What does this fold into?
Amino acid sequence: MGSLLPPKDPNKLRLYSMKFCPFVQRARLVLLAKNLDHDIVNVHLQNKPDWIWSLHPEEKVPVLDTGSKIIPESLNICDYLEETYPNPPLYPKDETLKLKDQAIIRNFGDLHIKVFYSILFNRQGLSTGELIQKAVPVLEFYENELLKRGSDFFNGSEPGMVDYMIWPWVERIPIIPNAIELYEALRFERFERLRKWFGLMMEHSVVKKTILPAERHRAFGFQLMAGNNIDYDNI
It folds into this structure.
């Protein structure tokens, strides 16, 4: 509170961020995939600076400052970057395939993120078996999509927009309570492609620059759910 907006280099993109936010991670992945020069200003979302009002009416991140415009929301930012900096392309060249990828991303945002958080918080007190039943249809959808595409990534031989837009939540799967039991129960051969995709994403040079260890994600979530004032730099 009371801090000043950090001065910005007019020749550099700026991402307003919070390092544990999966929506921010989406934007970071696309910035890195396109090798765009940018800086990052992390915002403490429990002790917000006054200037955040000027960037987002709901005081949220991510927000991208291009120098000429302010762009809020992760998908808006990623679509802007794809249109403005088309190389390397993160969508297929074929318009029909591009529309299909965009539909998959929307479906992930509208449905599958909610499934993730319903399993994470498990406010209904479901058993491991019941949680598996919630997870299986989601996993089957992406397993079948990789099978139909016949590729390691949803974009082919390299990650693309679909890969980057769903990755942040996949990275956070280990923070789910009983994650080990869930993982062991889901080691069916029918998820072989997803397991391979996960391993390849974990080792990809772009993704590795944004990954945080599971214990840090877990510690942040514990502090957040406990209602503590979080020291982001010391988690």
Remarks:
- The first strand starts at residue 13 and ends at 17.
- The chain has nine helices and four strands.
- The radius of gyration is 18 Å.
